[in-house]
Each structure stands twice: as C-alpha cells, then as structure tokens.
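Give me structure tokens for this 31-residue protein.
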Amino acid sequence: MPAPKAPWEIHDHVTRENERIARERRERTGR
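Here you go.
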C-alpha cells in the first residue's frame, strides 16, 4: 500500500491539474 502523500504534494498535484484543465479550456474557447 503506497504511503499517503504529503499535503504540499497533494496541493502541488491539484494545482498542476487545475492549470492543465484551465489551459485546455482556454485553448478550446480561444478558437
């Protein structure tokens, strides 16, 4: 069983996912 991530690792992952989603949404609406 993998060890639980540290809070800052979770936040970093969520931030990166949110940036990726926001970028995809921006590209989709920009056309």
